[in-house]
Write a structure and sequence with these properties.
The chain is α/β, with parallel strands linked by helices. It has a single domain, classed as Nitrilase/N-carbamoyl-D-aminoacid amidohydrolase. The chain is built from six helices and twelve strands. A six-stranded mixed beta sheet has the order 5-4-3-2-1-12. A six-stranded mixed beta sheet has the order 6-7-8-9-10-11, covered by helices on one side.
């Protein structure tokens, strides 16, 4: 954790996806402008299209156009979200990290949610792609929604300073999302940023969670703002040693 800032400002978005893709992009761009002082902005899983399984071809084409627009807008900020991407004859749900007008990390969702028929429409990514990546000496990792339930993936990203969870997590299992994200932050002694959709059937629960399990959240908002204090990570890892 050398040459790190003392803190970073975070915006975790919490909005629903319209059937009109352009409206979703406009909403995301509006939040990027409104929260232009935030160092990190995280948007819900497939926020540009929703889980529009019947129109994957259209969604993937729109994603290509949207990425070009977003890359022009994102300079020093870090933007994290997922999009629908076509690979050959298949479609994937892909996490994208944009920074300094470039895509600096991509990761296909490896654990597909069968209750939502994701396995019938998407090609699963490789688990080995779930790995730590660095931006300006800070270690990040991403778990996409359902991937949060697999404890071996927590071990795979152990050592990350910030774990980002873009999600479309259902309201019937809202308590699970709250418990798992807090447990991940405490167990891996890291910050967890979860950004979940707030459709009527979704859990909301977007939050910034500290290594102590303390959470900043507000289900009534479209944007939850918080701060990452890297001294908290250092303190937890120094005084409560959980490595063998």
């Amino acid at each position: 954790m050398l040459n790190m800032p003392k803190n970073m400002s975070v915006t975790s978005l919490q909005f629903s996806a319209s059937k009109r893709y352009q409206e979703n992009l406009d909403k995301l761009l509006s939040h990027i402008y409104k929260h232009r002082d935030s160092d990190i902005i995280v948007a819900p899983e497939v926020c540009l299209s929703g889980m529009d399984l019947k129109h994957l071809e259209t969604a993937s084409k729109f994603s290509i156009m949207a990425l070009k627009v977003l890359k022009k807008k994102i300079d020093k900020q870090i933007l994290v979200f997922t999009i629908i991407v076509k690979k050959g004859d298949y479609f994937v749900n892909q996490a994208v990290v944009i920074h300094n007008h470039k895509i600096v990390h991509k990761q296909d969702k490896s654990k597909l949610f069968k209750l939502g028929d994701e396995d019938l429409y998407f090609l699963a990514g490789k688990e080995k792609s779930i790995t730590i990546f660095e931006i300006d000496n800070i270690k990040y990792a991403i778990l996409i929604c359902f991937e949060l339930r697999f404890k071996h993936l927590w071990q795979q990203i152990d050592g990350a300073d910030i774990v980002i969870v873009p999600a479309r997590w259902g309201i019937l299992r809202k308590s699970h999302l709250d418990i798992l994200t807090k447990a991940l932050a405490v167990l891996n002694q890291c910050y967890v940023i979860v950004s979940n959709a707030n459709d009527s059937d979704m859990a909301s629960s977007s939050a910034i969670i500290s290594p102590m399990g303390e959470s900043v959240y507000d289900d009534s908002l479209e944007a939850v703002n918080g701060e990452i204090d890297f001294r908290e990570i250092k303190k937890m890892r120094r005084y409560i040693v959980v490595k063998d």
